[in-house]
Amino acid sequence: MADIYPAPVDFIDRSDYRLGSEREGLIQLQSNGLFIRQPPKPHELEEDITPEGCLFQTIHMGAPVVDTSRWKLILDGLVERPFSINLRQLRQMPHASVMSFHECYGSPLTDPTKNVWRIGNVEWKGVPLRYLLAIARPDLARGYFVWSDGLDSGTFAGVSADRYQKDLPIEKALSAEALVAYEMNGQPLGKERGGPVRLVVPGWFGTNSTKWLCRLSVQETRSPSPFTTTFYNEIDPTDASGIRKRPVWKVEPNSMIVRPRPEDRFSCPDYVEIWGRAWGAVEIVRVEISTDQGHTWSEASVTPRKQFEWQLFRLQVFIQQSGRHTIQARATDRLGIRQPLSNRRNHVPIVQIQVESK
């Protein structure tokens, strides 16, 4: 595998990559157990970039307290040149920034249709994962997955795990967007956000962006971790039998309505401006709006995507009748996959407003 970038390998440590040494920077686990900080309601997410205080948090087994002076990242497995680096060395490497929506699949213990709109839009900064892989030179004939380990451990939903571990297909790991990140929105990653370093996988659900990252390992098979086998799998909607499951990886087309707010009041006849956000693993190219419970749809304007950021849609509709009106938004991506109306976690959003005659 040729180096994708010129690799500053002179300071790479090719001796101290002992399995287990990557956890020596862990001081303690704080607030053991599951913690979820719910996001604001969609109508409160007005800013293009979501501030830290408005972004959801999901912690499965407690937040690690890390000694940044002892933190290290090991990259090993089916690679020609395993190595380890510390935080200072990581920050000396070529970096990239990616603007991306960040969406939580929600608790894998509850009905996924109830976990909707845990979403924000942030800017990540870090070292491209493919840059690190280029230094290690993975065996692409056998190394089909990259496992990522976090420093957290414990029990989740009665299942014990000695580490939070996920996996990525090698194709996604080698994509330009995947980062080993140390900043969000221009600030160092805090403890609850997965600092000092986390994996970031734009276009995929947040569960794949391993927090408190300490190890990356190229392997032939998927990880046996409970967070890939027991948790974070869903019924494949393309399976007519409704039995086959698939990993919670790519984010399907989704949208939310920011304005009007639920129960806003308007006079008629008049124009009502409808706007919101749409997102998915693949760029959204069409958003349709309905104000009559889905009987008719009108196409909104959609801002093209530059990276993986959520996309603004906007439409003015002329409402002539008084009464309650139901507004829905439906997104379609570049591959023609359209947001479902109901019974899925990415079902169309619904906002009801009240319209009165002047």
Short description:
With 358 residues, the chain is mainly beta. Helices cover 6% and strands 40% of the residues.
Please report which band the strand proportion falls in: under 5%, 5-15%, 15-25%, 25-35%, 35-45% or over 45%: 35-45%
Largest sheet: 5 strands, mixed
What is the averaged pLDDT score?
91
Instruction: Give me the secondary-structure category.
Output: mainly beta
CATH topology of the largest domain: Sulfite Oxidase, Chain A, domain 2
- Low-confidence segments, ≥5 residues, pLDDT <50? none
The largest beta-sheet arranges its strands as 6-5-16-9-12
CA radius of gyration = 22 Å
* Beta-strand segment tally: 27
Query: What CATH architecture of the largest domain would you give?
Result: Alpha-Beta Complex
Q: Per the principal axes of the C-alpha atoms, what is the gross shape?
A: elongated
Please tally the helical runs, counting DSSP H or I stretches of 4 or more residues: 4
CATH 4th-level superfamily of the largest domain: Oxidoreductase, molybdopterin-binding domain
CATH class descriptor name of the largest domain: Alpha Beta
How many angstroms separate the termini? 70 Å
**Tally of distinct domains:** 2
Query: Helical amount among residues, as a percent range?
Result: under 10%
Cofactor: Mo-molybdopterin
GO molecular function: heme binding; molybdenum ion binding; molybdopterin cofactor binding; sulfite oxidase activity
InterPro entries: Ig_E-set, MoCF_OxRdtse_dimer, Mopterin_OxRdtase_euk, OxRdtase_Mopterin-bd_dom, OxRdtase_Mopterin-bd_sf
Organism: Penicillium argentinense
